[in-house]
Structures are given as structure tokens and as C-alpha cells.
Amino acid sequence: MKRWFSKEKLLYPFYILTHPADGYYELRHRERGSVPIALIITALFSFCYSMNRIHASFIVNDVDPRSVDSMNELVGIMLLFFLFCIGNWSVTCLMGGEGRFKDIVTSVGYALLPLILTFVPATLISQFGAADEEAVY
């Protein structure tokens, strides 16, 4: 348990955010990533995406908030996440690459972190924008 959730592993997605080339290299070659953290980031992305669809202003959101089901959103995002990872792994296997499924899941999960960090402010900002400011959103 400690090897999956150490302080270094918890802060590593933010290192990748600021140093993507070095971060993804170390993720692949030095085993610095954590699959459980990547899956937690994916679940957080699903939560933030659902909250954005529910709470974004009606000016920028054309979805009826009463029709959003967070569990369906979670299942859909996790399904797409794993289908993308399986497809990526399949292509690397067919092309003779060395892509490991663990590395693909970890890197795709870590790549969702910027979306989490932008959905929250975007949802809050959408409450204060006028119709003419929709392009800023």
C-alpha cells in the first residue's frame, strides 16, 4: 500500500505537469508512476466532468442538469479510458513496440490532471459570464 501511495508518487503527476518530457521518460524507464493514482485521477476527472455538466451556467451548457447521471458518466468515462488504453496497447504490440499496459494506463491517467485543474475554475467562471463572453469560456 505504501509503495502505491507514497508522497513521491502522489506528487509525481504535478511533476509531469511541469516537466512533461522528463516526467514521461522517468515514468517509463524508472517506474515512477502509480496505476492506482492514475485510476483515482481518472475517477476525479469523471467527477469534475459531471460537476461541470451539472453546475456550469446555462449560457455555456446546453445539457439539462436534471438529466445528468453521475454514475453513467463515471462508467462511460472509465469505459472510454480503458478502451483507449487497450487500443493504444494493441497498436504498440502490432507495431513491435515495447509499450506496457501499465505504462499506458498510468500516462493516460496522469494526462487527465490538467483537465481536472481547469474544469473547476471554468465551472465557477461560467457563473459570472455574460452571453457575449461565451468565447472566453
UniProtKB/TrEMBL annotation:
Main location: membrane
Lineage: Bacteria, Bacillati, Bacillota, Clostridia, Lachnospirales
GO cellular component, one term: membrane
Membrane topology: Multi-pass membrane protein
Cross-referenced Pfam families: Yip1
Alphabetical keyword list: Membrane, Transmembrane, Transmembrane helix
Residues that span the membrane, as ranges: 35-54, 74-96, 108-130
Stretches assigned to the Yip1 domain: 15-124
Localisation: Membrane
Species annotation: Lachnoclostridium phytofermentans
Record-given protein name: YIP1 family protein
